């Protein structure tokens, strides 16, 4: 497997900028998740790496090999990229074995070698005995596994996965995602996973890259991008977040909902404090830095619950583990127990 280095990649379709001076790197064996809204350039970035789109400027290196430099672009079939598109894209007229073998070089491998590779891949994805089945005879999860086996069969330098689990139901999606990530890690595969799902990004990747308007605006470990967002908007894209009005005083203290925020003063620095729901403690007893409110709603999920508390004019969402004995309409006190994330108004 290989490392990846992208430098100053740009691409436009007409007047619309799709990739805007984008740079990104990935070490050998790392798995990255690209997280961002539709239209931000995630799939275009993958297709540029794969050689399916020619960037206007910038460079792409896979390992030590320069595969894209302005007009000098290595053809996609020479890059040894394993690509798994959103729908799997299995060839409907080929059976499972033929789909897996499709990318293998028939001029370099004997029939026995190809047959053994297909057998190894079927064992890897736990679909032994499915060789002769057609794609139409497979479930959605099985089709995704066959598409992954086809991508891995060529011993790729990098595997690119473009939302491969998005069409699956929630339970199957979680199980298959875990299996695929475990499989990639077992082979020390360098991979990039495109997703809209923030939970999928956080649980799957070594590196999470957040994209906005053709740029990567923040990247780091799942823990860092969740705990240390660079803006309130980034905070809400990686998980539930409460945004509170705040004032940075001259003495460096921050006044906000949990320490008796008074009306904002124009002479101070106004902004927002970002709090995660699990960083709020809910009790029936108040303290100097607690805020009192009434429970308006409880969403119970089994393993935990999200409780909405009306504090003054603000709805505050609190995440607590179960079991609990709080009730809608009850008066409670809330205390912020997590880190302080203050973002001045722009």
Question: Brief overview, please?
Answer:
This protein has 346 residues and is an alpha+beta fold.
Keywords, please?
346 residues; alpha+beta; 5-stranded antiparallel β-sheet
Strand element count: 20
Low-pLDDT stretches? none
Radius of gyration, taken over Cα atoms and rounded to an integer in Å: 25 Å
How is the main sheet built?
Answer: 6 strands, mixed
Task: Give the amount of beta strand, in percent.
Answer: 25-35%
Content-based structural category: alpha+beta
Q: What is the CA–CA distance across the termini?
A: 43 Å
Give the strand line-up of the largest sheet. Answer: 7-8-9-3-10-11
Range of helix content = 10-25%
> What is the average of the pLDDT values?
90
What is the ordering of alpha helices and beta strands? EEEHEEEEHHHEHEHEEHHEEEEEEEEE
The rough form would be described as: globular
